[in-house]
Task: inverse folding
């Protein structure tokens, strides 16, 4: 039987690719934050308590443009609204006896990548597995911001931009392993990529925020898949 410590260690081990990916991307965020006039302490606090790359980059742009607080808040709500869906999905995977405190801590640490690992766990999800992922992912994101904020103008702009490639490598590391043994999942991932590209090039659609795009695609693709290929309860909990 898996103990809480063993589940935490498994989560921490699985979360290392996320931590390294976050380190590189957050480094870029830290540099941009410094150039926008945000202090290193403010940048680190932003990463420590927000944990949203798209939201933070968007917020940074708005702060630099002296946007109104209401505008910033609404923008963040739209961009990060996809986390409502992720948290709802994970709530169906954890034990019904899981306390509210555990649920709140898990909700705080949910990002695209943490969700990807947590939802792929076979059977019921233990909060301690997600805590393990969070325990390396959050420091990776925060440390990357700290290093970037203090590095400032050390690295050329093209090098900083190239660091963003690490995020895509990290996402591939999350989605490819579970897709290898599941043809339906592999097709859904491919369709998601095609649909995402479609939304990014079609006039009118490409102006939609990334958060809204993710919600629309999630509802359409995941909803259709759930209807056409339902998973029986006994199989889902194996």
Result:
């Amino acid at each position: 039987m898996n103990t809480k410590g063993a589940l935490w260690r498994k989560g921490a081990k699985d979360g290392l690719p996320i931590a390294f990916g976050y380190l590189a991307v957050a480094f870029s965020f830290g540099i941009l934050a410094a150039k926008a006039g945000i202090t290193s302490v403010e940048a680190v606090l932003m990463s420590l308590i927000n944990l949203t790359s798209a939201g933070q980059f968007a917020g940074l742009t708005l702060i630099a443009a002296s946007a109104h607080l209401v505008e910033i808040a609404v923008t963040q709500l739209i961009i990060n609204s996809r986390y409502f869906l992720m948290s709802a999905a994970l709530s169906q995977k954890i034990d019904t006896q899981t306390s509210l405190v555990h649920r709140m801590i898990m909700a705080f640490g949910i990002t695209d990548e943490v969700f990807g690992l947590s939802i792929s766990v076979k059977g019921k999800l233990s909060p301690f597995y997600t805590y393990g992922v969070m325990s390396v992912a959050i420091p990776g994101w925060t440390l990357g911001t700290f290093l970037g904020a203090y590095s400032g103008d050390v690295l050329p702009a093209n090098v900083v931009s190239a660091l963003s490639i690490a995020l895509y490598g990290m996402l591939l590391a999350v989605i490819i392993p579970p897709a290898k043994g599941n043809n339906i999942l592999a097709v859904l991932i491919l369709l998601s990529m095609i649909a995402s590209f479609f939304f990014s090039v079609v006039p009118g659609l490409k102006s939609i925020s990334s958060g809204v795009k993710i919600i629309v695609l999630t509802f359409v693709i995941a909803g259709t898949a759930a209807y056409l290929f339902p998973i029986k309860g006994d199989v889902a909990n194996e």
User: Anything to note?
Assistant: The first helix runs from residue 4 to 14.
